Amino acid sequence: MTKKSRPISVAAALAVFVGLAIAWSTGGLSLAQDSSKAKGSLDKVFPSSNKCKRCHERVFEEWEASPLSRSIHSPAFRASLDEYLAFAGSKDKALCLRCHAPHVNEFVDQVQVFVAQVQSGDPAIDGVGCTQCHLIKQVDRARHPPVPKYEPGKTLFGPYKDFVQNLAHQSLELDLFRKSDLCLNCHLSVPAAANLGKANDLLGGWESSKAIKAGKECQTCHMPEQVGESANGENKRKVANHTFPGRIGKLRQEAAKLEIETSVKGDQTKVTVKVQSLVPHNLPTTHPAWAKVVLDLAIKGKNLKTVFAEQRVYGRVFADAKGQKTSFDFMAVKVLEDTVLKPEETRVETFTFPTPKDTRSFDVEALLSYAPVTGPAAFLQRIEAESSKGAQDPVFQPIPIVKQAVNVPLQ
Ligand code: HEC
Ligand code: HEC
Ligand code: HEC
Ligand code: HEC
Ligand code: HEC
User: pLDDT tens digits, the chain, 411 residues: what are they?
Assistant: First the structure.
């Protein structure tokens, strides 16, 4: 080092030090300064959700409890990603991550890093974290499925026009955040099943449902409005619940109504169950392909013993290129059977069975629930082996939606 250059490097070092000190005191957020991908590493461009927690504790805790925070963590996802990679060979390796860890779209050359993170079973990167949504500037609905346009930078997009300024990031109101469009790029259809075209529309004719025509957006039901602090210590205002109620949460109880009618004609009894879906889109959404909703009918006679039981299944049965049934939509080329409940559809199911004997009454019980995972034995065993809960992993448990029971007297 020469004498001449010394004052310059001291100044430079000082500048760096001051810069760091400012960055730290203003929240230590290191959002990239421009949209140049080459400049920032993965977590500079898409800082981890942990970085937002300090100021957005309420939102963070809600998000942490939501399925979105676990979008690349479940043993079921890990096992199916591997099935996909084995099947797809050299085709689009990023496909599953395009929605489950959508920042891969900005770092396609690093797809191996993402895959390795998933395979580790304990990823250090976010799946669908805060910035994976709040850096979306635009969603191109002209394309099917719609494509998000990220604008990485220090501005975070959100619903507020009248936001309070803060030192960590700039804010900008985008109407997109109050609109279904934001959600559609991941929820409309899975491109893996491209061969199926419209046949694997996940939501069905949602746009012509009564709820959507009445002005509801995905957020109305899945990010319900509440009053609270948007950032720690700020005034209470209208905020959006980030637990994303769906299979988890109370929203489930608003999914459907069941109505039971029974007619006893001597030895034969007929039960009709009216299943009225209140959901403005398909139920279930058929990704992953094993996703199913089932209606279980049970007749309980003397001593509450089950004397008759039958099931109806709502979902899609897919076939692969060899014509075999498959539990993986990425292998599907054809839909063999489609029984999903269409938006706000009412389905009437009829059951007939011998009238229970030796009893003065019997019970009719109807239960609608999300069914557990199904698939090849090796796939199920792998999920079980990899889950810290083994056979108790949530994916093996049914999730009740609604229940209805009546007691029918006999003369
Ligand atoms: C970047 C892609 C992406 C975007 C954008 C997105 N989601 Fe999702 N969403 C997912 C993924 C992936 C899952 C599944 C997470 C898991 O369980 O692995 C999911 C799960 C959900 C669930 C839970 C479903 C269940 O079965 O319980 C709800 C509800 C949901 N999202 C609603 C929304 C809403 C509302 C929006 C728009 C405000 C939205 N999502 C935007 C990718 C996305
Ligand atoms: C277009 C976006 C999109 C793509 C592409 C996509 N997924 Fe999903 N995935 C979702 C959404 C949204 C959900 C939540 C669905 C719901 O609950 O209705 C989900 C749920 C899942 C689940 C159940 C939840 C969990 O985490 O265990 C699995 C497993 C899964 N996806 C695997 C895959 C695999 C494997 C691929 C690649 C072949 C893939 N996904 C591609 C959007 C996508
Ligand atoms: C130093 C504290 C701080 C940190 C760190 C921080 N924020 Fe904020 N953020 C705020 C404050 C304050 C507001 C304004 C809240 C209000 O207006 O009620 C805000 C507002 C927002 C908004 C609403 C913007 C709008 O116009 O609708 C979003 C979205 C947001 N932050 C996302 C994030 C994300 C994502 C992170 C992490 C990458 C983050 N914030 C980190 C303090 C912070
Ligand atoms: C799946 C996309 C998605 C994810 C993931 C997500 N948000 Fe949001 N966020 C939204 C949408 C959409 C709104 C606006 C909802 C509305 O107003 O109807 C919103 C609103 C907000 C707001 C303003 C309202 C409020 O509730 O305070 C803040 C702040 C915010 N988000 C921060 C965050 C932070 C921090 C995280 C991560 C812990 C996060 N968001 C994760 C989509 C998302
Ligand atoms: C009028 C309220 C309402 C609106 C609007 C709405 N949903 Fe739903 N959604 C529900 C109900 C009710 C359920 C079923 C119960 C449950 O799982 O929460 C559901 C279920 C879901 C599920 C889980 C289904 C499954 O089979 O795993 C996803 C994912 C979902 N909705 C996404 C969306 C998206 C994306 C939009 C916007 C296009 C949307 N919803 C609009 C009420 C609504």
Answer: 333 333 333 333 333 333 333 332 334 455 544 433 433 588 899 999 999 999 999 999 999 999 999 999 999 999 999 999 999 876 889 999 999 999 999 999 999 999 999 999 999 999 999 999 999 999 988 887 788 999 999 999 999 999 999 999 999 999 999 999 999 989 998 866 556 766 678 999 999 999 999 999 999 999 999 999 999 999 999 999 999 999 989 999 899 999 999 999 999 999 999 999 999 999 999 999 999 999 999 999 999 999 999 999 999 999 998 999 999 999 998 899 999 999 999 999 999 999 999 999 999 999 999 999 999 999 999 999 999 999 999 999 999 999 999 999 997
Q: How far apart are CA 135 and CA 309, in angstroms?
A: 50
CATH of domain 250-409: 2.60.40.2360
Q: Is the pTM of this model over 0.85?
A: yes
Q: From CA 84, how far away is CA 98, in angstroms rounded?
A: 14
Q: How far is the CA of 289 from the centre of ligand 5 (A)?
A: 17
User: What atom of ligand 2 comes closest to residue 185's alpha carbon?
Assistant: 1
CA 389 to chain centre: 21
For 172, the token pair is 């900008």
Coil, strand, or helix at residue 286? coil
Percent helix, strand and coil across the chain, each to the nearest 5: 35, 25, 40
221 Cα–ligand 1 center, Å:
13
CA distances from 29 to 20, 133, 166 (A): 11, 17, 12
Identify the helix (H) or strand (E) that includes residue 350.
strand 346-354
Query: In the numeric block, which tokens belong to residue 215?
Result: 């002005």
Q: Identify which ligand lies nearest to the alpha carbon of 395.
A: 2
Residue 185 Cβ inside 6 Å of ligand 4? The answer reads no
Q: Which residue has a Cα nearest atom 41 of ligand 4?
A: 130
Residue 18: CB atoms within 10 A of its CB come to 10
Domain spans, the chain? 42-240, 250-409
Mutate to test the pocket of ligand 5, among 180, 203, 218, 287 (most ligand atoms within 8 A of CB): 218
Element (H, E) at 237: strand 236-240
For strands 155-158 and 170-173, give the pairing. Answer: parallel
